[in-house]
Amino acid sequence: MKLANVTGVGIGRDEHSGADVIVVFVSRKVPPDRLPADDMVPKELDGVPVRVLAIGDVRAQDGPSGEPRGRGGLA
User: Fold this and answer.
1) Alpha-carbon span 19 to 21, nearest angstrom
2) Burial, 24: exposed, middle or buried (Cβ in 10 Å; 0-12, 13-18, 19+)?
């Protein structure tokens, strides 16, 4: 999903209803009036509700050996 601030997408359950949802992870939430229409996360996809979860910036971490992941460390 190539939208502003989107860092990932997953599946989950709504904390209130227990229904299946699509979770869209964003670095930060932006008020709808400050976001271009092309960057709006839809309220549902293929009939499945979408929840937006702000998680901050995502960065790769070092693996157990101290080496950066993807360069000889455990993935």
Assistant:
1) 6
2) buried
Closest to 9 measured CA to CA, from 30, 26, 25: 25
pLDDT in tens, 18-70: 999 999 999 999 888 998 989 899 999 999 999 999 998 877 777 676 666 65
CA 46, CA 53: separation in Å to the nearest integer? 19
| Residue 43: partners with Cβ closer than 8 Å, 6 or more residues away | 49, 50
Q: Which of 32, 31, 14, 33 lies closest to 23 in space, CA to CA?
A: 14
